[in-house]
Amino acid sequence: MSDNVIGKKITEYRKQNKMTQQEFADKLFVTNKTVSRWETGYTIPNSEQLVQIAEALGITIDELMGNETRNDGKGGKEPVVEIVRVEVPVEVERKISWGKIVAIILSCVVFVSACFVTGLLISKKIEENELLKAELIKWQTTDRFEAEWANISAVAASLDSDGNVENTEYGSNGQCIAQFGVKGNTLTFNIVSSKSTTAQMYIAVVSHLEQDTPFYYITTEFDDVWNLYVNPTEDQIEKEEFIQTKQTYTSTDASKTWYDFVEVCVEVELREGENVIKFVVPRTGNGEYGLNMDYIRFETDAELKWKPYKENKVRPPDPPGVV
C-alpha cells in the first residue's frame, strides 16, 4: 500500500459522489485546504476524522484504507472481510452529532456577527455619504477661486480686519492677498473636480512698481515669487520640487499701484475629487516683489467646486458676470 492510499481513496470516492473539495469540506465542517492536504498526502486524518470521512463518502473504513483485497497465502487474492462498516458505535455517533451541533452553532454565531458588523459598516458609510453630500451642497460651483478663500499661512502679509485679506476696490470680489512676501508663506486652495482632466489655470497677480522710476513696472519672473504645487506630496514640498512655469508678467496701470492684476496661464492636471493647489513663497522680500494675488481661475471641461477654508471670514462670491 503506498504512503498516500487514504488520500487517493478520498479523492476517488469524493469524485464518485460528484462532490467538489469545498462541498466535501462543508460536510465535514473543515476547510477545503484541509481536504486538499488529505488528498495530496500532506497530512493524514485522525481516527475520528476517518470515521466521519467514511460516513460522508458512504464507504467502509476498509475501503477508505484501500484494503478491499488481501493475499490468500497461495499467491492469489481473496476478498477482504469487512471489519468496520458505516455502522458507527453509539459513543462515536453521539460524539459526531455533538460536534456537528457545536460547529453549526459556531457557524451561526459567526454569520450573525458578520451580518451585524457589515450592517454597522454600511450604516456608517451611508452616514458619511450623507454628510459629504450635505457638505458638497455648501461648496459652490465656480471656475474662479478667490485668494481670500484659501488657507493662508503667513507672517508679514498685509491683513485687513478679518485677519487674512485686504479690501480693495481693484480686487475681484473686493478683496485680495497683499504683499505676501516672506519665505515659507503659503496659500492653499482646496478644489473639488468632477473628473480627472487637464486644465488651463490662470493666476491673477501683480508686478512690482519701481519706486525710483515712476509708472514703470518691472517684468516679474513668476517662479521667483511663487512656487506652484498641484497635489504635492510632503517629500516634493520638502525637496522644493515645484512646477516650473517659466512665466513672466508685467502690470501696466500705474494708477492701481499694487492692484493692477494680470493673469499668468499654467497648464495643470486635476484629479477627480479634491485637489490641493499650493503656492509657496520661495524667498523673503516683502514689498520688493510682485507677490499680490487676487484669484485663480480655470478653463476646463470639468465642474469645479470651491472648498472654503473655514477659519477665513470672507463674503460669498459675486454673482456671475460681476468682476
Shape label: rod-shaped
Number of distinct helices: 8
| Sheet/helix structural class | alpha+beta
The Cα radius of gyration reads 38 Å
User: What's the overall average pLDDT, rounded?
Assistant: 79
- Terminal Cα span: 93 Å
Keywords:
323 residues; alpha+beta; 6-stranded antiparallel beta sheet; 4-stranded antiparallel beta sheet; 8 helices; 16 strands; 32% helix; 22% strand
Topology:
Layout: H1 5-16, H2 21-28, H3 32-40, H4 47-57, H5 61-65, E1 69-71, E2 77-79, H6 90-138, E3 140-141, E4 144-146, E5 151-153, E6 166-167, E7 175-176, E8 186-193, E9 197-205, E10 220-221, H7 222-225, E11 227-230, H8 234-238, E12 248-249, E13 262-270, E14 273-280, E15 293-299, E16 304-307
Antiparallel strand pairs: 1-2, 3-16, 4-15, 5-8, 6-7, 8-14, 8-16, 9-13, 9-15, 10-12, 11-14
What would your notes on this structure say?
By secondary structure, this protein is of the alpha+beta class. Helices cover about 30% and strands about 20% of the residues. It contains 8 helices and 16 strands. Strands 3, 5, 8, 11, 14 and 16 form a 6-stranded antiparallel β-sheet that branches. Strands 4-15-9-13 form a 4-stranded antiparallel β-sheet, with no helix packed on it. A hairpin with a 5-residue loop joins β1 and β2. α1 crosses α3 and α2 packs across α3. The relative contact order is 0.14. About 10% of the residues have low confidence.
